[in-house]
Amino acid sequence: MSWFREYFADRCATGASMSVSSQFQDKGGNMTPERMTKHFEKLEKQLKKGNK
Fold this sequence. Notes:
Structural class: mainly alpha
């Protein structure tokens, strides 16, 4: 069953990657720099807040 464990881990990683990627896409399917910048700034604030 080790093949299934590797397959499942790969599918989970792919799904997580797709989920994160979809957060940056607008209705036209384009990733806008403004939207990405805003999201990364928000993540940076969360990380700084969590590290205190």
